[in-house]
Amino acid sequence: MGRLAGRIMLLWGLPRIALAILAGAIAALALPPFNVFAAPFVSFTLLVWLMDGSTGSADGGVFTRLRSSFLLGWLFGFGYFVAGLWWLGNALLVEADDFAWALPFAVLGLPACLAIFYGLATLLAGLLWSEGFGRLAALAAAFGLMEWLRGFVLTGFPWNTIGYTAMSIPLMMQSSAVLGIFGVSVLSVFVFASPALLGTGKGMRTGLALAAILLCAHLGFGAWRLSTADARLAEGAGEQTVVRIVQPLIDQSRKLDDAERASIFEEHLVLSALPPQEGKRPDVIVWPETSVPFLLTNNPDALSRIADVLQDGQVLMTGAVRSEEAAPGSPPRFYNSIYVIDSQGQIIAASDKVHLVPYGEYVPYEDLLRTMGVTDAIAMPGGFTAASTRSLLKLPNGKSFYPLICYEAIFPDEISPDVQKATALLNVTNDGWFGATPGPYQHFLQARLRAVETGLPLIRAANTGISALVDPFGRISKGLDYNQKGVIDSTIGSGSVPHWNNFDRQIDFWLVVAVMLLIAATSRAGFNFRTN
Fold first, then answer.
1. What is the DSSP letter of 251?
2. Pick from 91, 47, 44, 75: which is nearest to 443 by CA?
3. CB–CB of 158/10 below 8 Å?
4. Residues 6+ apart with CB under 8 A from 382
5. 3-state DSSP: the chain helix, strand, coil percent, rounded to 5?
6. How many other C-beta atoms are found inside a 10 Å radius of the C-beta of residue 379?
7. What is the Cα–Cα distance from 142 to 137, expressed in whole angstroms?
8. Tens of pLDDT along the chain (532 residues)?
9. Helices (DSSP H) in 240-381: which residue ranges?
10. Could you give the C-alpha distances from 506 to 67, 176, 274, 446, 497, in angstroms and in order?
11. Angle (nearest 5°) at CA 177 between 146 and 424
12. Measuring CA to CA, how many Å separate 22 from each of 27, 34, 39, 79, 460?
């Protein structure tokens, strides 16, 4: 291993660039649907050895070494994000005649921007780089901080945060309940990078022992928590609610065809009216994001059709577009929303999407782009207005659901304290834009983690999949895979399981970062003392 590490450290030019990109791409294999847990061990080991070659060089001074560290991280991130997010380009091919021009920006441009965060991570780690396992702690803390920043800078896009590579199954998801995704990311990087110590000698035993303890704690805590899961769920079961999740499998091209609107609406109604699977009729029926292909408030006949299908006491929760007149004579505002409709065909509750998708649901800096004459970007799909607050969806029977529309489920720090009042999380989405790619599988994993973190079951309705009922421990109670058409009937209780709140997880994240920085700084100080 020492000989291999030495050869990698001494790489320069194109081989060094290619290996850095390849290392990042390999890490993406740990994401769904591949879930190759060993992949990040290879990736971060290579990254450490490449960093050793940059930070250990005496040529060019501090600035040159830090610039080299940043470039390594950027190349690593570029490989990771291209390999993990290439499927975003599929959304532009749905209307290829209009938007194929933007394909390079989605497939290469977005990864290039996101890779800046990883470049900053390796630059920061380079400031504290030393021999031994202290450099692993520096890398872990830096990556954790940058993943946290990626969650909110420029509206945020924490998709495929490194921690998800260590949480492919429920056994490995439970640490997120305590540390959150960013805390898990810090410790994951340390563990993933630990094999690098086999090739560099100093601090090997201590570093490998600490990595082994962290990995065993990660798995052991998961095993303990799952061993008590059924008992905890039974204690807080309370009154059971039967939920039907509808997965209609509507091709995205059909959803964009005005002539298909009526038939799409009827397909949802037919699935909703199927005989019960659980022996008891559903209390709640859930349709995916923007399932209703027209403005319900402008179509009383559609509300009447919903009332015809719903039995007394049943309610429908559906994704829909909501319009609102901003001011007399001004254009209406449109919201990506969830409606709750009772068996009388009345809209009894609604919640609007708070965090919109840039260039998917709105165009940032639209007025500025118009003045610059950039009309192609403004013509991209969008036109929604963001809600200022998220509203709980309250049902007549006293149940409340915490709404997360589409990719809102990837933002753990945006879940408000109101979630403690909810019976379940409700995630409606339409991943049909992305086709049969890794995208829907990655999205589903991230939504499952929100159930673990909040201690609430997750009801997830996706147009083309993956739809499922997930328990508060991330386990799938019942589901439909991608590209399947049908319904799911399952039950949820009325209570949550005991859990850490978001504030506590943030405290734990900063404590983990502080410990790693302390280890890195101590190691750095000792290294400087020995070399002076």
1. -
2. 91
3. no
4. 359, 360, 361, 362, 363
5. 55, 15, 30
6. 11
7. 8
8. 788 988 998 998 999 999 999 999 999 999 999 999 999 999 999 999 999 988 655 555 677 878 899 999 999 999 999 999 999 998 888 777 777 888 898 899 999 999 999 999 999 999 999 888 999 999 999 999 999 999 999 889 999 999 999 999 999 999 999 999 999 999 999 999 999 999 776 789 999 999 999 999 999 999 999 999 988 888 766 788 999 999 999 998 888 888 999 999 999 999 999 999 878 899 999 999 999 988 998 889 999 999 999 999 999 999 999 998 877 777 888 999 999 999 999 999 999 999 998 877 887 655 554 555 444 443 444 578 888 899 999 999 889 999 999 999 999 999 999 999 999 999 999 998 898 999 999 999 999 999 999 999 999 999 998 999 999 999 999 999 999 999 999 998 876 777 788 899 999 999 999 999 999 999 887 755 455 4
9. 252-255, 261-272, 300-309, 366-371, 375-378
10. 31, 11, 44, 18, 19
11. 115
12. 9, 17, 11, 6, 34
The sign one gets for the Cα dihedral 305, 311, 317, 323 is positive
Instruction: Work out whether strand 424-429 and strand 458-462 pair parallel, antiparallel, or are unpaired.
Output: parallel
CA gap 180, 201 in Å, rounded: 32
Burial class (CB in 10 A: 0-12, 13-18, 19+), 330: exposed
Contact 505, 419 (CB under 8 A): no
Beta bridge partners of 467: 480
Token pair listed for 416: 């408000």
Beta bridge partners of residue 338, listed in sequence order: 319, 351
Which phi and psi angles does 228 have, rounded to 5°?
-105, 0
Instruction: At 183, list the tokens.
Output: 């805390």
| Positions marked active-site | 289, 353, 406
Helices (H), strands (E): how many in the chain?
Answer: 19, 12
Taking the model in full, what pTM does it have? Answer: 0.93
Q: Are 428 and 289 in contact (CB under 8 A)?
A: yes
Query: Domain 237-354+389-496 is classified in which CATH homologous superfamily?
Result: Carbon-nitrogen hydrolase (3.60.110.10)
Query: Which residues partner with 325 through β-bridges?
Result: 332
Q: Any idea what the Cα angle at residue 187 is, between residues 76 and 57, rounded to 5°?
A: 45
List, by residue range, all CATH 3.60.110.10 domains of the chain.
Answer: 237-354+389-496
